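Fold this sequence, please.
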Amino acid sequence: GSLLNLIPTAADDLELLWFVARILGNFQHPAAVAALVNLLDSTPDPEITTMAAMALGNFGETALPTLTQLLKRQSTRLIALHALAQIQHPTVLPVLLESAADDSAEVRAAAVSALSQFQTSQALDAFWTGLSDPSAVVRRTVVIALEARTEQMIGQFGAVALVDKLGPLLGDADLEVARQAALALGRIGNESAIAVLGSILQNSASSDLQLEVLRALAWTCLLYTSPSPRDVEES
């Protein structure tokens, strides 16, 4: 009760509100959910709204009705999606799949990023579809999510399949998408990835992309030629 009473009195103390939102995420109580929703409604500061959304995500399935309602409101859609992304529960999946087809590129990007955490065929199909999304924001989000889960994706789909999906994006009309694809290929680092990067290095007219490819190749060399701790000890 005393913690909830702090919210109206701390309206001008953004740091205190941030800590209040964080602490509320540890209380599995309807009053805490209501207080966090109130923070989302009343506080424009992005750090506080982000923390409030993360705190709501801590409530798991209990917070789904609240977050679903927040998803319907323009002002809180993205915040609600980020919170839903933390709740890896089957009941979240239909909401994310619907959001992945939204008219807003920002909403689609947030949805496909969240879908990368699910292993169902529906989720993965929507995730891969994002690679050909008309919005560069969505395409870039998919590549970044893929890069962040490189080992998991290689284990699930194989390195060659990932290279086949990422290779075409090196010629993306958006330079940032192409650069992220180069980084992701460098992290994969198999022979086919290196061959694709080498081809772009020789044939691309973009010096910025060539520089990113060089960085990716350097990362690959560092990743796969650095001695292991055992090698160091044995030497």
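The first helix runs from residue 2 to 9. The CA atoms of residues 46 and 216 lie 33 Å apart.
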